[in-house]
Amino acid sequence: MIEISVNQWKKLVKGKNKFGAKKTYCSHKHLHDSKKEATRCDELNVMKRGGTISRLKQQPKFILLPGFWYGHEKIRPLCYFADFSYWEDGQLVIEDVKGRLTEVYKLKKKLLLNKIKNRKRCIFIET
């Protein structure tokens, strides 16, 4: 068995994604977690320039559960970061570009869907 230190391990895996995705820049010089996400960013920016969508945001933050105190311990809020959000045809679109669906992602997605279920002008899509 080979033994290495934690620092050596961090250097070995630095910049590597456990699913094999490679960080990629889109044409607007934004760094994305995958080539698929960078391609989608380019598509959305074309749609924005064409007037099809507006208010395009990258990595918008949605608070699923606010922070709270448990005795003397501060519990941080539970947040979901989508890949993109934008307005299209009077609706807020929350979009996530996914390759593999992790268990954490599935749980956070359910919490987000529960949070937006009664909003008439808000939809969630996976691409």
The residue-averaged pLDDT reads 87
Distance between the termini: 42 Å
The strands making up the biggest β-sheet line up spatially as 3-8-9-10
Percentage beta strand: 25-35%
Shape: flat
- Helix percentage: 25-40%
In total, how many beta strands?
A: 10
The domain count comes to 1
Series of secondary-structure elements, N-terminal to C-terminal: HEEHEEEEEEEHE
What structural category arises from helix and sheet content?
Answer: alpha+beta
Biggest sheet, in brief? Answer: 4 strands, mixed
Number of helices: 3
Radius of gyration: 18 Å
- As residue ranges, the low-confidence spans are none
Q: Any key phrases for this structure?
A:
alpha+beta; 127 residues; two-stranded antiparallel sheet; 3 helices; flat; four-stranded mixed sheet
Structural features, described:
The protein has 127 residues and is of the alpha+beta class. It has one domain (19-126). It is 29% helix and 31% strand. The protein contains 3 helices and 10 strands. A 4-stranded mixed beta sheet has the order 3-8-9-10, covered by helices on one side. A hairpin with a 5-residue loop joins β1 (24-25) and β2 (31-32).
What is the element layout, followed by pairings?
Layout: H1 6-13, E1 24-25, E2 31-32, H2 35-49, E3 54-58, E4 61-65, E5 68-70, E6 73-75, E7 78-81, E8 84-88, E9 91-96, H3 103-116, E10 122-126
Parallel strand pairs: 9-10
Antiparallel strand pairs: 1-2, 3-8, 4-7, 5-6, 8-9
